[in-house]
């Protein structure tokens, strides 16, 4: 549960969410690549990356003087597993909503 809370907390920040989205879309990137277009300093991006690493959502690989980042699938799996475990709740809720809408159609207008 702790990892799940850390993951949600880390992703609640729009910049960190955007970083994870970018890494998922583009694959492994350097910190410099992640700075481009964000309007932030390298130090600010580094702080965000540190929080994402601590939450288990991002991996860091060192290649010479370059630090490369990629998504850690096992970190995202905690979110996916939690979401899937709540599937029954959502299906029942949607079924109740559909029934309520259907019963509302029979009321005279």
Automatic annotation (TrEMBL):
What keywords were assigned to this record?
Answer: DNA-binding, Transcription, Transcription regulation
Domain spans labelled HTH arsR-type? 1-91
Q: Which SMART domains match?
A: HTH_ARSR
Q: Which residues form a coiled coil?
A: none
Q: What is this protein called?
A: Metalloregulator ArsR/SmtB family transcription factor
């Amino acid at each position: 549960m702790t990892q799940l809370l850390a993951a949600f907390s880390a992703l609640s920040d729009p910049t960190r969410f955007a970083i994870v989205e970018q890494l998922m879309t583009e694959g492994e990137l350097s910190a410099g690549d992640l700075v481009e277009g964000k309007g932030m300093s390298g130090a600010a991006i580094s702080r965000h990356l540190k929080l994402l690493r601590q939450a288990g959502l991002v991996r860091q690989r060192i290649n010479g003087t370059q630090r490369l980042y990629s998504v850690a699938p096992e970190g995202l799996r905690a979110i996916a597993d939690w979401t899937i475990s709540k599937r029954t709740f959502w299906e029942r809720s949607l079924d109740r909503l559909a029934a309520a809408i259907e019963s509302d159609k029979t009321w005279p207008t």
